[in-house]
Here is the input.
Amino acid sequence: MQYAILCYHSEDVVGAWTKDEDDAVMARLAVVQEGLMKNGKLGPHARLLPTTAATTLRKDRDPALVLDGPYAETKEQLLGFYIVDCASLDEAINIARDLGKANPGGAYEIRPVGVYHAGGALP
Amino acid sequence: MTDVAWMASLLNAARPQAMAALLRYFRDLDTAEEAFQDASLRALKTWPRNGPPRDPAAWLIMVGRNAGVDTIRKHSRQEELPSDELISDLEDAETAVAERLDTADYRDDILRLLFICCHPDLPATQQIALALRLISGLSVKQIARAFLVGESAMEQRITRAKARVAKADVPFEAPGAVERAERVGGVAAMIYLIFNEGYSASGGSEKERGALCDEAIRLGRLLLRLFPAEPEIMGLLSLILLQHSRAAARFNAEGTIILLEDQDRSLWNKKLISEGLALIDKAVRHYRPGPYQVQAAIAALHARAATFEETDWAQIELLYGTLEHMQPSPVITLNRAVAASKVRGAEAALAMIEPLADRLSGYFYFFGVKGALLLELGRLKDAGVAFDQAIALANSPAEAAHIRSQLDRLMKDSEARASKKTPA
Here is the structure.
């Protein structure tokens, strides 16, 4: 079963990290990710730019409305995601725990993937 | 992450909102700042033990407000009772603050705090110092280091700034639409000042220089989150992100400026560039151009060019023309001339800058550009004169060193010419 691990964290807090702290978190995450890659558990994963760079298309009306900013105003924001391949939910939760040790604070939403297409290779 | 670093980033993240709300309650900068300090100290004691609260800002506001009220009560035993004006909303001090932090209040609170720092009565350096102290929460020592001045001088500067702001009487009711737009404009200008203070500094390490730029970017994101559909704020943030993306490539080990054309573009920060490009793309969709957006668009053209040779100078010249139209200035004309020299040659550019000579006679960059154009045309003697004038006007050793390297090139050029003339 594939799971999406959706990474939520306070943008204010992550934005207040110094460059060194940010680099340290990324380096620790890279170690966890490398382990997962070796075991063929890790698919596409991404860190997203701040929500100030986001645009939302409201398509529940015609014509659709283009709005500046993220879809939802929340205390913690969607800042990234992983797609992992796991035998069970427990395994997915354990992966999330390992990632969480490398990057404390915030929350991970672990969500089973229904349909997965790898798409083409991106530059 | 260490406990200290973890606490610091939580407190820093909550600081603008908490300080802004406390300022609204107490209507006095010093009281608000002390209340925030008290709350932070209490947080340092209790958060590591109990874990951080669900909403750190709301926790800090509530604890800070109680601490501030206590302090005022203690004072009031010796002095007279505080007027109701001084402590607004005292009766509901115990209600859950979190519920009452509706977005409108929150937005105007933070905007007010930002706006107080860029009050027109304050000179630019005091604006920056005050903003870094109050909103960013940098220590006096950190700010002093960023400005390359002594700690006590900086302490004085901040104290003077606070005293001026206290007298300035910034209204506390929610601003009207026009007033709000003016405040946003003032705050944007202040954020750009902070950025430029860091960007133009040439002393210190890249990290020290970068600290103010990082802070400006953080404040820019904060302002854009408050006003997510303002294209000029997108433009401002885009501009400073794109300029800062080149930080690692702008100076050599000796601290000499490396010109855009000589920079190692692989050192440019791709993440900052992506964010900057994304923002200018968003901004232009609004069809409400402004000076920040135009400058960001120029920076974007540089960022998009894989090599200096691939730069779209024709487009850059057009954009400088637009900027000149929006805010006429000889410095912008000078920049347009630089772009024009790449499109139509040094002769044409020289003709553009000649009429600026009177107004820019005290400007280092004018003579630097003039010298470079003359050098390109092979008028070595005239180029040498212009470079000498530039060195005399240089504001920093880095600027002077940069011109000296141009002079070296001139010497080599003239030697090369001389050796060509004399057959071997």
User: Anything to note?
Assistant: Chain A touches chain B at residues 10, 12-19, 21, 24-25, 49-53, 55, 66-69, 73, 75, 104-105 (CB under 8 Å). Chain A has a mean pLDDT of 94. Chain A is about 35% helix and 30% strand.
